[in-house]
Amino acid sequence: MTSRPEAKQPLDALDRELVAILRRDGRAPLSKLAEILGVSRGTVQNRLDRMLASGTLLGFTVRVREDADTEAIRAVMLVEVVGKSTTEVIRRLRGIPELQQLHTTNGKWDLVAEIQAASLSDFDRVLREVRLTDGVLNSETSLYLSSV
Predict the structure, then answer these.
(1) How far apart are CA 88 and CA 135, in angstroms?
(2) Helices and strands of the chain, counted as H and E runs
(3) pLDDT tens digit string along 85-120?
(4) Rounded CA gap, 60 and 29, in Å?
(5) H or E segment to which residue 123 belongs
(6) Closest-CA residue to 119 (of 99, 140, 98)
(7) How far apart are CA 16 and CA 19, in angstroms?
């Protein structure tokens, strides 16, 4: 029997503030989080445990300044999905590590993906993987040239 995440509960003001702090510093110790929020360390631990168990928090990650890796290939890809296969396409695309962000959208395109690849050959591979994904009908990709 596989364990399923608990039902998602709406975030209250304390949860939202905790998530906002973690977005800025995902490595902040519990004691510092408790001090900033004005609650006990146990309260912070319980909130984090609940959000992790429910799937609200998916994990903690490292953020790198955009200009730290000047060799990275960055792009935005618009994806059109066949029929009602969006959920399955999203599940498959989440398995591609170079897709930094994935968003649903309205209009002609169904999904917007932000891509970051280490090289042009990696970038080419990512484009191929996305385009060969079952349920992807069409895509359009634009490279980021510079930030202004």
Answers:
(1) 8
(2) 5, 4
(3) 999 999 999 988 889 899 999 999 999 999 999 889
(4) 13
(5) helix 120-131
(6) 98
(7) 5
Strands of 29-93 (E only): list them.
Answer: 73-81
The tens digit of pLDDT for each residue in 32-87 reads: 999 999 999 999 999 999 999 988 888 877 666 655 556 789 999 999 999 899 99
According to the model, what pLDDT value does residue 123 have? 95
Half-sphere exposure of 109 (CA within 13 A, CB side): 15
Which pair of tokens denotes residue 34? Answer: 């408790």
Q: Which two tokens stand for residue 138?
A: 């069409």
Give CA–CA dist 76/58, Å, rounded: 23
CB of 75 within 8 A of CB of 144?
yes
What pLDDT does residue 95 have?
87
